[in-house]
Amino acid sequence: MARKYEGFMKGVFFLSAIVSIVALILIIVFMFAGGVPFMLEYGLGDFLLGQKWTPSNTPASFGILPMILGSIFVTIGAVVIGVPIGVLTSIFMAEFCPPKLYKWLKPAVNLMAAIPSVVYGFFALQLIVPIMRNFVGGTGMNMLTAMILLGIMILPTVIGLSESALRAVPRSYYNGGVALGSTHERTVMAVLVPAAKSGIISSVILGIGRAIGETMAVVLIAGNQPIMPRGLTFGVRTLTTNIVLEMAYAAGEHREALIATAVVLFAFILIINSIFLYVKNKEAK
Amino acid sequence: MNWTKAGKVVATLGTVLTLAACGNGGENSDASANGGEFDASQPINVITREEGSGTRGAFTELTGVLVEEGDTEIDNTYAGATIQNSTNGVMTTVAGDQAAIGYISTGSVDDSVKPVNVDGAEATPEAIKDGSYPIARPFNVAYKGELSEVAQDFWSFMFSAEGQEIAVAEGYIEAVADAPAYEAAEGLSGSVSVVGSTSVTPVVEAMAEEYQSLNPDVSIDITSNGSSAGMTAAIDGSADIGMASRELKEEEAAELTAEPVAIDGITVVVNSENPVEDLTMDQVRQIFTGEVTEWSEVVE
Amino acid sequence: MPTETSTLTTQKTRNTKQLSSKLIRLLVYLSAVVTFGSLLFIILFILVRGVPYITPSLFEWNYTTDNVSLLPSLLTTLIVVGLSLLIATPIGVFTGFYLVEYADRGNKIVKAISMATDTLAAVPSIVYGLFGMLFFVTFLGFQYSVISGVLTAVIMVLPLIIRSTEEALLSVGMPLRQASFALGAGKLRTIFTVVLPVAMPGILSGVILASGRIVGETAALMYTLGTSTNLPTDLFSSGRTLALHMYVLSSEGLHVNEANATAVVLVVFVLVINALSTYLSKRLSKGGK
Predict the structure, then answer these.
(1) Domain span at B157
(2) Quick one: which of A169, B279, B280, C248 has the fewest CB in 10 Å?
(3) Of A102, A103, A74, which Cα lies nearest the Cα of A89?
(4) B142 shares a domain with B110
(5) Residue B36 pLDDT > 70, yes or no?
């Protein structure tokens, strides 16, 4: 009887474990089934490389190159801003922070990750945008604003993973460096950081994923013009904002085009994630 | 690691915060500090709504930004225009930017932005009603086939004198003049689902509240997710009543019975520092298509 | 490097060394200040903007356009979070059991599961939202409803719960299990009576983080839960969570002050959830040692 129960529960555990795989397959199937037919009908090249997005014109154009480039540029900017600050902060957390302060800062990083995107967006709209307007002119809603906000938003991702990577480096490395007469700072930079390299790289990749997928915050502050990116001080539209801006009112072909946009975004994420898994596996070996 | 260093960190943190907090306080008074120095040589920052928005659809059509030629329809909105997907987004942007111009539902206009007269007419309910203010659109409600008994009763309430009065009280214009008084039916119960436009929602919501207080056993569920979603929901039967802030498309009109429940003006708004009072319809069109790019071209 | 006398060179090297050390220290401290300064500032900013608008009328039982009550959304948030966790926790925890206690490491299915989990964790919420709309709302015909929202949220937080369960179980020492086996306990019994109690705080902290994620979610719920202002009456009626409420309020543009106040409630909510999770994971690290 007990044995039967053991077997039954093992089955239950196995079934639960399968749920994630089933869910992922469902997501892939439904997203692709929703978007791919449109892409093929409209022409994959015209869709991905088209520079005109004018869904309410007759005939309509659905080219998402401006949004693809917008997403890429904004993400690069977020990485340029967020990664150095994030990695240096993680070094602070791992090597410079007194334990009493750490007790407060660690939960603070978690909190930063938990603040809802909408809240970040409203904060940026009410603060970064007016500052931008004063310094750069225009509406203040531009690529740079989006980069700064996303730079802040990827900080907890970068800090969390980089910090655990730094902490995973054996202490003997550090002791060796100091024994050779190097200062604390130089040992950290020259020995610990290179040793934690792959962990830091994975944190950056996850940060990229977060930046590229962010929606509700960016839509409020990026300007959202569906035209080719023209520079840091001009507005930009990303893949995610293209969806959320127009989904509510879209019908027919327009709606399919937006689902297809999500498919492209999803493909991006899958690629980024494969790179992440590859780096992680290499690290494990 | 020593404590003086940690102390310094905390102290710096404090300083940054204080500075930031002061910055915040200053930011509100920013606009008034610049008061009276409107620089007409600055470029116009055009703010528009997203493609597919009922407000944008109506605005571009009425102002001639949308050009129809035979089978083609081209929305000529200036490609560099900033796009906001909500009324509030447009208002916040215009309120914070001296050089901005946008358009919003007349019912939503408040002190944060300055309404502009079009062709000499102010966007008042009277001017919209008699047609002297040219930019207005219907708020439509629609259903498919036959309404259920409860839904039918709510429908008659919306088009009754009481219902139309609520639309007026909310800042919109009644769609039915001399509407009949509402006669409450006895013992109605059940629920009515209403789905659609975010712009129409506030009006229907106010009507639903009043209706529910008259008929406590009826529950009206309102979901606001966009005109097209509302029409789709009404067509496929997942909602009893759909709401749209635009005219129905041909394929929608073929399936649904629709009627305007209120009329809403679209007001052109600028920053309160902007001296411009009056624009002609043609100037509005030129600004939103990007033909006119500097304030000096429209401000004397 | 200048080639003067050797003592001078050493002196110079030491100076550059000290200079670069100071520079590193400065950069590290500066970054920390920027990070935590912006966090503190964001929270303060939200509080300063929103607290003055928190009024009793915001907490009235029924939402009307006059009181713009956030109570229905607050309750809906609790309902959605509760139901999602009710479904996601057993699935997530059982997956953790399977991965740690039953399957052999390096087994193909284990690899596939952890790859699926990693990928699910990376999917952006907007994609979850559209998937939920295509699958639950349209394909399964659930409409905009609590059930559509909850099921979408379940898939979204599953990776979080699986990961924290895995970590918590792995942190339980092998000797504990062996002792239990030696006393004649079966595997199942060992898991439920010996391993689970020790791992509980870690699992709970993951579950709480998951609830935080649902509380802050907008994009995924907008297209599945809908945005009805009423309190949902059953699984198939629509509602809105606090985050959605805030988004919708500000889109309408009529109730900006109330949106600010909602932001405060939202941030406080998240603060409490995080404090709880931190407290529990502290207990885990104490219990584990």
Answers:
(1) 137-265
(2) B280
(3) A102
(4) no
(5) no
